[in-house]
Amino acid sequence: MMELDIDQSHLPRVQEAQTESPAVPVSVRHTPTESGAKELCQCFAVLEDGALAHSLQEQEIEQYYNSNVQKNQLVQNDIRIAKRLQDEEEQQLSQATRQLEEQDSEYARRIQEEIQRCAEEARRREEEDEEIAKRLQEEEMDIRRQRLDSGRHGDADDFPLIEVQILLFIL
To answer: Residues in domain Coiled-coil (predicted)?
Structure first.
């Protein structure tokens, strides 16, 4: 059998069996006993448990890290969506405000036109009334002249009739 060199610095210590002869080589002096084998198995079990614990801890850290990455990506995505929705709402509000302003402007224009039309109508009526009053006054003056020319002086009964006619035209 071929002997292999084994680095024993990382292996657990095995109790050495003391022999009477110090001249016996060390490799021969290390004869494992049953309790040494158990101790060696226990050490390997401890090392395996440590390696398993380390592996589980690494997995837990990796899962925690991945979970944080996912959460951060979700938050960033939610922020983008919220920003987009806010921009859309602001755009709709701006559009609605602009439409209301246009409607208000149109209503104001219509009201102004109606006011101008009413004012023009009132001015026209006033001019017509003045024309009628002027014509009636001229007719009355013609009647008075005719009466004066014909030698007849005006009766008191004739004048109220003309005044009533003037009032009826004005109303």
So the answer is: 37-146
Tokens of 159: 């004048």
**Torsions phi, psi of 8, nearest 5?**
-95, 5
Distance CA 30, CA 4 (A): 15
Sign (positive or negative) of CA dihedral 108, 113, 116, 122 = negative
Q: Are 132 and 169 in contact (CB under 8 A)?
A: yes
Tokens, residue 40: 């060696």
Cα distances from 125 to residues 8, 20, 101, 128, in angstroms, run 126, 149, 36, 5
The Cβ of residue 29 has, within 10 Å, a number of other Cβ atoms equal to 13
Contact between 170 and 126 (Cβ < 8 Å) = no
Q: Write out the chain's pLDDT in tens, 171 residues.
A: 455 565 666 655 655 444 444 554 444 445 556 677 888 888 888 888 888 889 999 999 999 999 999 999 999 999 999 999 999 999 999 999 999 999 999 999 999 999 999 999 999 999 999 999 999 899 888 888 888 888 655 454 555 555 555 555 555
Which token pair is 67?
Answer: 């979970």
